């Protein structure tokens, strides 16, 4: 690893999020050696500007170029999606070269394929492959870890149940829409509905009722608000359940069958109730609509194309807040929060994935599980509480802040 030319390679650096990761590294990389990578040299040159960074050209379909890319760096951080189209050969190259990897995918059917193809090898080699290091699913997965760890610290008991409620202000990227449409067109929509899609074989409980996806609006007195189903819960809950299942049971802060559910906050009173009801209905219509080719064609026509996204002003004015309430088996309650300014799918996602890459490039002895941990992991199991501290240093609200 020491002889590698770079600490971090940013793959997909010319994309809408990719360009923001380059700007973040130009400002925060310090002494890290880093490079931009992607398929188009001219675009990459343009994005690099005056930054002191290398440049690597490698198409997502060029196995030789990807092998050379992965061999040159300790870590690859990818924002090139849809990941089911542009991510598989890159991850295979990273596993083959023992290169740590993180990305911002929310494509859980693709992640399931990575687990099947690469988990055993990456675990044996101590290579950390960490998908879902964007807005999906860092606040949920790291938030759940913070709350569970604090419950364990206060009561000595594992956490039995966590509910999380999101409030978001942000826009939609064309790349995100393309990824969703690709899931539908690949016939993988049904997989999204499996609450234990990302669990290791044999770790899903026999009785899954408490873990079923929430589809109806509800009032919650703990959050003092109306809550709607949250579209991204179908991604985030699977990631948190994988974290629970991958954490060694002895001393774990999570109970073996910890229940994790999440919602979208819509407000108080009749207006909050009306919005929650409308959103629940809208999500139901959307789930059915995504199966229709005409519906998908209309989405393509009306919504942003790949490479497009919200305006700079809209991204600066965005925000996110993920509040969590956990409960131990003996009734101890702990509240937690991860929040930040800026569009969650762009500003926050950029911080999440760049800080994940920097953590992976740092001292592995400080990461959960130490140098030997590897596999297709989650933000909580690969990066853990030290990563939460990094996010706090990067300006995010992190509560309770780990000691
Ligand atoms: N987790 C989150 O919260 C979150 C937030 C935002 C986005 N995302 C995900 O991130 C991904 C990117 O989003 P985005 O808005 O940045 O999309 P985008 O602007 O369309 O960027 C896509 C990137 O993929 C690259 N690419 C396309 N074909 C390639 C190929 N054959 N070889 C190598 N690279 C190739 C593009 O390169 P060119 O520039 O050369 O075309 C570009 O850099 C999507 O999957 C989206 O769902 C996740």
**Ligand roster:** NADP nicotinamide-adenine-dinucleotide phosphate
- Note the overall shape: globular
Number of structural domains: 2
Number of strands: 14
Could you walk me through the main structural features you see in this protein, from its secondary elements to its overall organization?
The chain is of the alpha/beta class and 403 residues long. It folds into 2 domains: 6-135 and 347-381, Rossmann fold; 138-344. Helix content is 44%, strand content 21%. It contains 16 helices and 14 strands. The chain has helices at residues 16-28, 41-48, 63-71, 83-86, 88-97, 108-125, 138-155, 174-185, 189-192, 233-246, 269-289, 293-302, 312-317, 344-361, 379-382, 384-393, and strands at 6-11, 34-38, 54-57, 73-78, 100-103, 128-130, 159-169, 218-220, 225-229, 254-267, 319-328, 333-341, 375-376, 397-399. The strands form 2 sheets. The chain has a 7-stranded parallel sheet, sandwiched between helices. The chain has a 7-stranded mixed sheet with strand order 8-9-10-7-11-12-14. The radius of gyration is 20 Å and the shape is globular. Bound molecules: NADP nicotinamide-adenine-dinucleotide phosphate. NADP nicotinamide-adenine-dinucleotide phosphate is lined by residues 12, 14-18, 38-40, 43, 59-61, 79-83, 86, 104, 106, 134-136, 173-176, 179, 306-307, 309, 345, 349. NADP nicotinamide-adenine-dinucleotide phosphate binds at residues 12, 14-18, 38-40, 43, 59-61, 79-83, 86, 104, 106, 134-136, 173-176, 179, 306-307, 309, 345, 349.
């Amino acid at each position: 690893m020491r002889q590698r030319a770079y600490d971090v390679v940013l793959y997909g650096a010319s994309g809408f999020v990719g360009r923001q990761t380059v700007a973040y590294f130009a400002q925060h990389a310090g002494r890290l050696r880093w490079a931009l990578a992607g398929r188009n040299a001219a675009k990459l040159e343009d994005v690099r500007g005056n930054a002191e960074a290398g440049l690597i050209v490698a198409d997502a379909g060029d196995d030789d170029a990807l092998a050379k890319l992965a061999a040159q760096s300790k870590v690859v951080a990818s924002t090139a999606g849809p990941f089911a189209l542009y991510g598989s050969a890159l991850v295979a190259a990273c596993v083959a070269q023992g290169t740590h990897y993180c990305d911002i995918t929310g494509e859980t059917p693709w992640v399931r394929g990575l687990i099947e193809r690469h988990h055993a090898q990456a675990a044996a080699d101590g290579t950390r492959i960490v998908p879902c290091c964007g807005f999906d699913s860092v606040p949920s997965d790291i938030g759940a870890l913070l709350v569970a760890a604090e419950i364990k610290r206060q009561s000595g008991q594992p956490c039995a149940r966590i509910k999380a409620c999101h409030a978001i202000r942000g826009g939609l990227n064309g790349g995100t829409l393309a990824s969703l449409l690709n899931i539908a067109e690949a016939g993988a929509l049904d997989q999204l509905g499996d609450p234990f899609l990302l669990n290791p074989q044999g770790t899903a409980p026999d009785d899954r009722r408490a873990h079923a996806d929430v589809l109806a609006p509800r009032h919650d007195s703990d959050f003092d608000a109306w809550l709607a189903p949250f579209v991204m819960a179908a991604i985030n809950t699977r990631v948190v359940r994988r974290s629970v299942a991958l954490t060694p049971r002895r001393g774990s802060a999570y109970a073996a069958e910890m229940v994790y559910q999440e919602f979208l906050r819509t407000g108080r009173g009749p207006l909050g109730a009306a919005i929650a009801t409308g959103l629940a209905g809208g999500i139901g219509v959307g789930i059915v609509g995504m199966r229709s080719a005409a519906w998908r064609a209309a989405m393509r026509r009306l919504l942003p194309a790949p490479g497009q996204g919200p305006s700079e002003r809209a991204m600066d004015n965005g925000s996110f807040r993920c509040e969590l309430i956990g409960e131990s088996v003996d009734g101890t309650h702990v509240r937690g929060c991860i929040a930040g300014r800026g569009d969650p799918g762009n500003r926050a996602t950029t911080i999440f994935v760049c800080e994940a890459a920097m953590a992976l490039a740092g001292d592995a002895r400080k990461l959960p599980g130490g140098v030997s941990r590897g596999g297709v992991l989650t933000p909580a199991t690969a990066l853990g509480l030290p990563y939460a501290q990094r996010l706090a240093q990067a300006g995010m609200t992190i509560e309770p802040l780990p000691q």
